[in-house]
Amino acid sequence: MDFLSEFLTLFIGKLQSPTLGFLVGGMVVAALGSRLTIPDAIYKFIVFMLLLKVGLSGGVAIREANLAEMLLPAVFAVAIGIAAVFIARYTLAQLPGIKTLDAIATGGLFGAVSGSTLAAGITMLEAEGMPYEAWSAALYPFMDIPALVMAIVLASIYASKQKREKYLKNEESLRKEEYRGMQPAAAGGYSTVDSRSATSRHSGEASGSGGGAARTSGGAPSKRVEIWPIVKESLQGSALSALLLGLALGILTRPDSVYEGFYNPPFRGLLSILMLIMGMEAWSRLGELRKVGQWYALYAVAAPLIHGFMGFGLGWIAHLITGFSPGGVVLLSVIAASSSDISGPPTLRAGIPKANPSAYIGASTAVGTPIALAVGIPLFIGLAQTLMGGS
């Protein structure tokens, strides 16, 4: 009982942070019909500044860190990103009215990482005075890229299977048609027209005449999934590019003076504006979410918490084995709970073009991100402080 009371006190205290206050404020402003708008160019600049700052601090930490300490958390990050896609494939996709490709794309987006949620988590850790490894931010791509790659690969496998089944059904229909054509005709003879046409179709397919796609042994078109273009698309995304640029500069240069003089001071102010924008965006996306049904809303509430608890559990294992800090455990949980809001959507639009963007983007922006920010971050900070004495 003492544990629960202490945890609830800590959790309620985190909900009063200014970071989350701006998120809620943005939702309230949008709900009241305000004409307040913040240009998209400013939003992109703020995200770039925040992620470059996170990358710089992470790069400096990596340069000074023991790389062996990073190995286990990095492996866990990869595992969570992949697992998130499979969870959606075998839970969300099984619900009534949910298309499998839409479910896989949703799992990929929720398995990928939000740079803004990561920045918010870091800000709240610093406000709490909770120590964490600065290289924890470098776990971002270890979760983000495998999730997006796995989603696109699973979607391609599923689409190929559907094409194969459709092709086999067509083949069965042709065989039945041929069989009917060989039945005795009304005058006592045999009809051979349908038989000849069916035979010619089969011979044309067997010889490959007329071009067409390569076929598998079962006769269905086969298409090999290319992994590198998916990875390349993810790496070229604006969010991941900014973070990786910061990491590279932090590792290869000495950016301490420019970091302390320019990037670090405005960090919290820029983040508050970003939270305001995200609150307004979340409210505007609620309409899209209503179009695709209540199951997506239920998934969007549950997935960030399930993924976050996976991150917390694996982070705790790393804490016991390698001494991974409580703050690092929280950041792994926050990364796991987040869903990509910048690089993920365009990557999935290109990689799974038949999936409905309103489904996976609406679920992520309208529900998933607010849950990760307003519930996930305070929840995991409170758990870490209660269980590991992370304050």
Indicate the percent of residues in helices: over 70%
Low-confidence stretches: 190-222
Question: What's the mean pLDDT score?
Answer: 83
The major sheet is characterized as: none
Return Rg in Å. Answer: 26 Å
C-alpha geometry: globular
Number of strands: 0
What does this entry look like structurally?
- The protein has 391 residues and is mainly alpha-helical.
- It has helices spanning 2-15, 18-31, 40-64, 67-90, 100-111, 115-128, 140-181, 193-207, 227-235, 238-252, 256-263, 267-291, 294-322, 326-337, 344-351, 357-388.
- The chain is globular.
- Residues 190-222 have low confidence and may be disordered.
Put the structure in a nutshell.
This protein has 391 residues and is mainly α. It is built from 16 helices and no strands.
Summarize the helices and strands and which ones pair or pack.
Elements lengths: L1 H14 L2 H14 L8 H25 L2 H24 L9 H12 L3 H14 L11 H42 L11 H15 L19 H9 L2 H15 L3 H8 L3 H25 L2 H29 L3 H12 L6 H8 L5 H32 L3
Question: What distinguishing features does this structure have?
Answer:
mainly alpha; 16 helices; 0% strand; 391 residues
